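Problem 12. The chain below contains 379 residues. Write out its predicted structure in token notation.
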Amino acid sequence: MEGKLCLICGDDDYLVDAAARERISQLVPEPDRAFGVETVDGHRDTGDEIRKAVDACMESVQTPGFFGATKVTWFRDVTFLTGGGRSADTTAAKEAVHKLVTWLKDGLLDGQTLIITAAKVLRSSTFFKTCQQHGEVQDFGNGLKAWELEKLAGQRMDALFVKAGLAVDPAARAEFLKRVGCDTRLLVSEIEKLRLYAGDRNRVTVDDVREITSIGREAEAWDLLDAFGERNALGVLTTLKRLSGQRGIGVMLAAMLEKTVRDLLILREAHDRKWVYGSAGGACGWNKNLPPEAAALLSALPVNPTAMNTWALKKKLPHALNFTLQELRLARYRILDLREKLVTCALPEMFLLETTLLRIIGNPSSKARPARPAAAGAR
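Solution.
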């Protein structure tokens, strides 16, 4: 009989950790966990650290439990698997992962159990396929789109409210998700706060949510993108102030802004060419009779904008029309320059973000130049 191998991966660290702990609770009785579970930290950056982590993992699995008791090794938060980021591309990481894969292909012995958790891993990699063939994979997903994250977060939120014994008004539900965002760890902690705040009451109102719920980092980031698209300088500065002081926030926001401007550039040019129609508050959509060269050009993009859902298009197109095409091209250049300065310049990241965004937005009281009207009847 072979041992047990399980890979648990996904962007949501709370779900990944919770799944690992659930498996451990099923495999090792609580009185035995002090000696029956060994955790090896997989969050490693340098080549020497990566090699030592893999060796420690293999040694732990091969070391039997005390007096023949059940033994589980948890290789936790592994950051150097194929597709895991910068450290995964190093020669040392590739050699270490190859060593781990070769060992796993031989199969674990009876009584050996290995649980590996990671945020990012390439689904087409040899490591991932080896785990599928010789063990079990629990995948919570990577790189999900915003609407997919929101849908999944809503489902988890509803289940968590039921578990907490709370009924939620529709308006309170929408407000809660808007404020907290899609991070499961935040959803759990904020719902617990609401449960304690509500006391004997079992119904949560909008006022309760606004009174006690904290605004999550992810929700704040989306607020920043909305304020940017609306050319709302006060909104941009207010949101940046709330986000300041968080580790790595500057690079994260710059990456989100670059993607947003790229999307707005495509929509603005498509609107000017009458490939897409719509305006703020009105109907919008893609021209069903696109010229063949336009359809070919759009389909050649990394993400075809014509596949964008209606909700996202209604939100983004008015933002695109708040800028001219030239303004968006200049904005993209300035944000790329911002990303470089954030990692090479000694100036405070919030100062760099504020000055760059204010230069792009311009005078908040001035109106963007009107966009060309969409072709009548274009559908």
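Discussion. The first helix runs from residue 13 to 27. Students who got a different answer should revisit the alignment rule from Section 12.3.
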